[in-house]
């Protein structure tokens, strides 16, 4: 006998169940009773069930779906930064190594986190998709297939590359660092590329230039490694009375091409042989050079002392050739200059006269203008201009004489028409006058007594 449950309806209240289902009691309080209902006919219009066979008390077990094999548990909250880094462990420390530039960052999850890894990704120079979210611009690239055509390619603005190019411009064009802070240059950058802001200061460009120098120095060190090189050096004194030395390396590369590189342009204390030798030794140790083939210098006695110092200090280096027996090479150009200067002593008086005339013409713009008018009157078609020689370079003396001989008639006309020229050179025979002659090298010029 089935007991029908009684429902009491309370106005404004909820439906309450006063009688507990008997079948639920039989199942020890389990409300999830498995019931099978078979409906033969369903009248949709009446929305009633004509015949329902309900089977109570009998339950049918449902078959569970087959269990799927369990795979590895997914990592919870994995940062996207690890898509670009490789996690390695060294003892108790965890490090992240960039997949592109191989830089290492501490990446312990409790101590450091991954903020430094995320900050590195957009700044990595080797990241192929750097500035991917930026607006790409169209640019032209020369077609490598030939034919003189160009291809339209997409390019992305990079502030780092622009800053590097600006530093290279300062180096190549020998510009002062304050150039980047000029009002005109900053206005040009604003019109040319508004994204290049803020324009780097001179301190930033200075650091960038030093970084370029360190990078190029590292490349040159690798290129010089394991090679025998030939060195040349020279010293001089500037007009500020500062002593400088330049050290240059010559070597053959892997393609059998002669290469020339300036290793150092530095300041030294004095021109003594011991000072020069010690400075060259320290520079070679800094460049990790262990093989000197020859050392070419001029014929100054201090250079011979410097070579002897290098012989003693580098005798046991790996790539020493024949115990440095032939390391000292004398400059052929300097030897040739000494020979020519000695031969020109027989014609020194004539050379001094020509030098004095050329110096007078070039001493002021008014005299040069007067000289040009004389050239036009004599109908001289040469487009060259008279030049003054340098006492230590015989080839400059040759150029001065070679050009001056073309303007011989112009000098004669100038002597006839220019009163200043007549007064300057109109000295009676046998008289002497003080003119600026002799050494023209920097601050060592002095007056000697010569006849004009």
TrEMBL record:
Source organism superkingdom: Eukaryota
Name under which the protein is recorded: Uncharacterized protein
Species whose genome carries this gene: Rhododendron molle (Chinese azalea)
